[in-house]
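At this stage, I wrote out one protein's amino acid sequence and its backbone structure tokens, and that material follows here:
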Amino acid sequence: MIDRLDALEQRLAALEEAAAGRPGGEVRVGDGEPWLIEESLRRDPDGAVHYGGHVEVAAGPVRWQYGHTTGDLLARDWSLVADGLAALAHPVRLHLLQLVLSGTDTTAALVADDAVGTTGQVHHHLRALAAAGWVASAGRGRWAVPATRVVPVLALMSVLHTP
């Protein structure tokens, strides 16, 4: 019982420190062993960010993983991703992306959702998402999230939903 209390106190202290914006400590969300952290340390001891996942979508299974060293990420021009982020920075676009990822793949079915607006508005938002690579035309008024974007968008949503 004391071990569990000590573990909870350590996790709380780490979360409070992270929330205060101070670096240091290990913050884990969820239970279980930090297997991803351990593997990341083994592969890239100088620092890295790895993410991946396996997802079943309407089009079939998607397995995807990616990683960057910390040095590579910090050396990149972050302004180059602004357009991709801007395409997601609208509630209707996020909702459309969620609908398409969940299997609603026709323009007609998307327009039927009360939260997305008119056909013209839906096309406007889909064009912005497509230009940034978040969705692609699957022909004849159908839309899909490219396999290479499924896990990244879910990882992004996971990061943004993490306390």
